[in-house]
Amino acid sequence: MLYERIKTPAGVAFYREDVIESLRSVDAVVMDVDGTLVDTTESLTEAIISTVNTIMGWLTGIRLTGKVIRRAISELRGSGGFNNDWDTTYTIIIAALSALSENLLEGALARLKEGKRPEANDRNINEDEDTISFEVLRRIEDAVKVAGGEGIIEVEKKILDSCGGVRKRGLLMKIREALGYSFDRQSSLLVSIFDEIYCGSKLYSILYNRSPILGNEPGLIFTERVIVDKRVLRFLFERADGKLGIVSGRPRLQATLVLKDLLTTFFDDRAVLFYEDLIFSDDNGRARKALKPHPYGLIRCLEALSPFELAVYVGDSAEDALLVENTRKLYRNVMFIGVYAYTLDPPSAIKTFMRLGAAAILPTVNEIVEVLR
Predict the structure, then answer these.
(1) In this structure, is residue 211 part of a structural domain?
(2) Residues 368 and 232 in one domain
(3) 312 touches 20 (CB < 8 A)
(4) 197 found inside a domain
(5) Among 184, 213, 245, where does a domain finish?
(6) What count of other Cβ atoms lies within 10 Å of the Cβ of residue 110?
(7) Both 14 and 48 in a single domain?
(8) Is residue 212 included in any domain, yes or no?
(9) Cα separations (Å) of 358 from 20, 104, 138, 347?
(10) In what order do the strands lie in the sheet with 272-273?
(11) Which of 184, 211, 235 represents a domain boundary (last residue)?
(12) Backbone angles phi, psi at 289, to 5 degrees
């Protein structure tokens, strides 16, 4: 596929030459939140780093360098199977634990069973505590290559298969259970620590009606800022006759806190789906999560926005592109537009979007106005 390059004040935009004219007929727009509508580079990424090192420091006394964790995050997000930051956090932790000895894992399990709560200073890293960082990154890279974008289940399986020995694998699975990541994730210890670091101890207590674990977190959510210009949303609202939607893996409460009245002013409530809404019943009547790139959420959103001539989904990750690809099996009249300025590795994001056939690749969502005019 050939792309036309156009310079914009925010950076270079790329338009696929074979669909550029088709984009003029877009009359429905759906967007992701993190990295698309909201800048989360100083919040969610830092929340992953802090959660990994809080848990690793608490259980083992070993932490990972921020540089290596960011590379691991980029590797996982670029795989096409990690749109959920809890999954990303857990995968980095299990990869780190898998690089340790059985004796250290036994100590970690004993620590979990003691009932002593982790503390914020558990995450403090010393100069000499990064000895396993690059081994962790290697394990994640190897697992992602073999799993081929299949997500947490396959990547975890590859990491555990390479850890060496039935007993070690058993210890890792017991730690997984103790962290609560093998059943209801929203009530797990790992998720609770992540959400408290992200929301802040006070807000966490109010939102989830739970006592904070760490107790004095200021809240990384307060570093976030809205990327999208209100004038752009108004243009899209008028252009699409109100057919604007959201499909995001972020919890609704957290998104509402940042987006505020933009949600109710510009987006069709029937076409706004967050983490809590991405659940469907399988053939046996059991409730299943349908996180991206599963097409359930986008299909529901497009059903609410129908009829339309051509819809676009705007997102910042490989999972977003694959979400559209999977949705096109039912809705052929939907295309993907990638945005890259707020990703961890913009050049890599651009290459990934081109490889996955994005209709357009923009620095931010605000440049969509030029695409659709």
Answers:
(1) no
(2) yes
(3) no
(4) no
(5) 184
(6) 10
(7) no
(8) no
(9) 11, 46, 29, 15
(10) 3-8, 11-16, 360-362, 334-339, 311-315, 28-31, 244-247, 272-273
(11) 184
(12) -75, 140
DSSP string for residues in 156-221: HHHHHHTS-SHHHHHHHHHHHHHTTTTS-GGGSHHHHHHHHHHH-HHHHHHHH----SSS----GG
Compute the distance between CA of residue 340 and CA of residue 354 in angstroms, rounded to an integer. Answer: 12
Q: Are residues 265 and 249 in the same domain?
A: yes
Domain membership of residue 7 as a residue range: 3-40+225-372
Select from 32, 210, 220, 27 the least CA-distant residue to 123: 220
Location of structure tokens 């409730």: 287
Number of domains forming the structure of the chain? 2
In this structure, the answer to whether residues 258 and 340 fall within a common structural domain is: yes
3-state secondary structure of 284: coil
pLDDT in tens, the chain (373 residues): 899 999 999 999 999 999 999 999 999 999 999 999 999 999 999 999 999 999 999 999 888 888 889 988 988 888 877 878 998 999 999 999 998 889 999 999 999 888 777 877 677 655 444 557 778 888 888 887 766 666 788 888 888 888 878 999 999 999 998 888 865 566 789 999 999 999 999 999 998 899 999 999 999 999 999 999 999 999 999 999 999 999 999 989 999 999 999 999 999 999 999 999 999 888 788 888 888 999 999 999 999 999 999 999 999 999 999 999 999 999 999 999 999 999 999 999 999 999 999 999 999 999 999 999 8
H or E element that contains 244: strand 244-247
Contact 244, 267 (CB under 8 A): yes
